[in-house]
Specification:
The chain is of the alpha/beta class. It contains 15 helices and 30 strands. It is globular and about 75 Å long.
């Protein structure tokens, strides 16, 4: 028999999406149903691999309450054959991530995260999986955004550009891809744009057959082929799963047939896994006792549909953090707001899941010229792919930017054009302060010459909770603070 079949399932960016939701009147997603589908395929098909492309953590109080231990426990039950880490896997610290890896019963690979003191890799860079005589080499590649999350951990480093990542893939393939290797698959967490760049740089001799990605939360209708390498990604959460049906020709040592689809994991597709259901229920019972209390009621449901536009939730948070403060403008990271919708009833759980990255807020003084340069950097072309930091601005700020000409047609504050000689007190969370140069395109050392930065809030969520609990019927609207022209 010269042909063998393989079913390759894959997920990415689960982000603590453990519980089911209702879509078009049907129960959709949730770990029990995702696990039910994986188990179903493992029973129906002879040769099955299930891979996860990073960012299991964050997004749920079940995750944050146990600092990821609950997530590892739940994913152990899901039982992936292979996984790579994403940028949010380091949110609880590198040391804690290494502890969590020891708790995992599934293999975790990453080729380009290392200790700078001796260049020792922190994880296994690759793994060979053998299924029915087929030998499949998996290599894990992480986004360079991990450097932003681990900036304070000076002993940790990563290959910071895609060219070096491509060279690292080549080194691993040269050393560990043998005549017995039937397929080589990259399990990446670098975003769809970087996947395209990486594929274009890979030499045919490396023998990379597929790229399974994550990070950019891209929903795809079909495979994208770059440099003869198919690239796929399965959106985000547990409501969808990617599926390859592969026919491998052992005589010619190549894939002869390849079909890919992204499936909606709903009640029509499969039953829930009762074991996962019971395990999840135990965690949910514990967290509900603490988090299922009403904090406030909004006037209506508010939305945050995209991180690269002005949103209702973005305006609400930026405004409440700026109100009665000592600074002029709050820059609220769009990516720090994790829910697409919030309200009208807001429970403590909703509030914590919306802003899971609780940290201090720094105040800085910038000149008008520096502020303009910051905005131009934020609005650069890469922003529209959702790969860079984008911000929500407190009231008074108006930005009109034309993408086609890269022109800032208006930058004003409280109705007055921003002049180069103006000065503003701005505020941002610690993550953005620590990565100021990269995120804003202005040297932090230059900004420090205007005034020594200082911490003005020790906890964003403490401020938000107090404001919510003392203000009922809150409302917010998109007001034209950020206007993007084509």
């Amino acid at each position: 028999m010269t042909k063998k079949k393989l079913v390759l399932l894959h997920s990415n960016d689960m982000h603590g999406d453990f519980l089911p939701s209702v879509k078009d009147g049907k129960s959709c997603g949730g770990l029990p149903r995702l696990s039910g589908y994986v188990n179903k395929i493992r029973k129906e098909e002879n040769n099955v691999i299930y891979a996860m492309a990073g960012d299991m953590f964050r997004g749920s109080v079940i995750d944050s309450e146990y600092l990821g231990l609950s997530t590892i426990d739940l994913v152990n039950q899901l039982d992936p054959d292979i996984a790579t880490i994403g940028n949010h896997e380091v949110d609880y610290g590198i040391a804690h991530l290494l502890f969590l890896e020891k708790c995992a019963t599934f293999p975790i690979i990453n080729a380009n995260l290392f200790v700078t003191l001796n260049n020792a890799r922190m994880f296994r860079p690759y793994m060979n999986l053998e299924v029915n005589g087929m030998r499949i080499l998996f290599i894990g590649i992480l986004t360079d955004e991990v450097l932003a999350s681990t900036k304070m951990e000076k002993v940790i480093g990563s290959f910071i550009d895609i060219e070096e990542a491509a060279r690292e893939v080549g080194i691993i393939c040269d050393n560990y891809r043998t005549k017995d290797t039937d397929m080589t698959i990259l399990l990446t967490h670098i975003g769809i744009e970087k996947d395209r760049e990486l594929a274009a740089l890979l030499k045919p001799d490396f023998g990379v057959d597929l790229i399974i990605g994550g990070h950019s939360h891209t929903f795809m209708d079909g495979m994208e082929i770059v440099n003869n390498i198919p690239i796929v990604q399965a959106g985000t959460g547990t409501g969808v799963i990617g599926r390859f049906d592969i026919t491998y020709d052992t005589w010619r040592n190549k894939i002869s047939e390849l079909r890919w689809q992204c499936l909606e994991v709903n009640e029509d597709l499969c039953e829930n896994d009762p074991v996962m259901e019971e395990l999840l229920s135990r965690y949910q019972t514990e967290t509900d006792a603490k988090y299922k209390r009403i904090v406030t009621r909004f006037a209506r449901k508010l939305t945050h549909p995209s991180r690269i536009q002005e949103t209702e939730i973005g305006n609400l948070y930026a405004d409440l953090l700026q109100e009665d403060s000592s600074f002029d403008i709050m820059l609220m990271g769009s990516g720090a707001l994790r829910k697409k919708e919030l309200g009208p009833i807001v429970e403590y759980q909703d509030m914590m899941e919306n802003t899971p990255f609780d940290d201090v807020v720094h105040m800085l003084k910038v000149t008008g010229a520096q502020f303009r340069q910051m905005i131009m950097h934020i609005m650069r072309d890469e922003a529209w792919e959702g790969h860079t930091e984008f911000y929500q601005y407190s009231k008074g700020v108006r930005i009109v930017y034309r993408k086609s000409t890269h022109t800032l047609e208006e930058l004003s504050f409280r109705g007055k054009p921003v002049e180069d000689s103006d000065t503003f007190l701005i505020a941002m969370q610690h993550y953005h302060f620590e990565n100021f140069d990269a995120f804003f395109g202005v040297p932090l050392e230059d900004v420090k010459k205007n005034m020594k930065p200082r911490i003005v809030m020790t906890s964003v969520n403490n401020i938000v909770e107090e404001y919510f609990s003392t203000h009922q019927g809150l409302d917010a609207h998109v007001e034209g603070r950020i206007v993007i022209l084509e």
